[in-house]
Write a structure and sequence with these properties.
Blueprint (H helix, E strand, L loop, with lengths): L5 E5 L10 H8 L3 E3 L10 H13 L5 E6 L1 H10 L6 E7 L28 E6 L7 H11 L2 E5 L15 H17 L1
Parallel strand pairs: 1-2, 1-3, 3-4, 4-5, 5-6
């Protein structure tokens, strides 16, 4: 019987507040941890990737990453060096750090890696996300070898999107966990 994965929450720029589905999932999911970055408002790619790497090193057993926005891009940068114990990733509303007008604090996360990810991945994108056009999200998902799930009218798929506990997202996460269980 394979070990149950730890779900590792990776918030984006400014962290995820109390109404964000990531924060709500911390009390709903079994075996869940959250990466706490040193600087939420002045992120540096190397620092965020290093903090993720250190957090992963401290977890025993398999891990499913649960990224939002810049947290998703952090996961993709980390994955360029292999999968380690990561057995899947749910990458929600990956921020397009290369777009015209991207906020100065996130442009150091460019360029976004376009290599296939070494673990099963689901990208969730909204057709009206102000931080990534749906066409860009489609391009990223294809490059990463990920399944793409489109949400109509969900904005940046954050606390302001009104998703509450976001049951659809938890179902996608369960799908990734089942893929891990079935692979062993």
């Amino acid at each position: 019987m394979p070990a149950e994965p730890t779900f590792l929450i990776l918030p984006g720029l400014f962290n995820s507040g109390p109404e964000h589905w990531q924060t709500r999932w911390q009390s709903l999911l079994p075996k869940v941890e959250r990466v706490e970055q040193q600087s939420w408002d002045a992120p540096l790619r190397a620092d965020w990737v290093a903090v993720l790497d250190a957090h992963l090193a401290a977890i025993d057993g398999p891990v499913v990453l649960v990224g939002h926005s810049l947290g998703s891009i952090t996961a993709v940068h980390w994955a360029q060096h292999g999968a380690g114990k990561v057995v899947g990733a749910l990458l929600v509303a990956p921020a397009d750090v290369e777009r015209d007008g991207a906020p100065a604090p996130i442009v150091n996360f460019a360029p976004i890696p376009l290599a296939p990810l070494p673990f099963p991945t689901i990208v969730v994108a909204s057709d009206d996300d102000p931080y990534a056009a749906i066409e860009r999200s489609e391009q990223l998902a294809a490059a990463w070898g990920a399944e793409l799930v489109r949400l109509p009218g969900a904005g940046h798929i954050n606390g302001e999107s009104g998703l509450a506990d976001w049951p659809q997202g938890r179902a996608l996460l369960a799908q990734l966990a089942e893929m891990h269980a079935g692979a062993n």
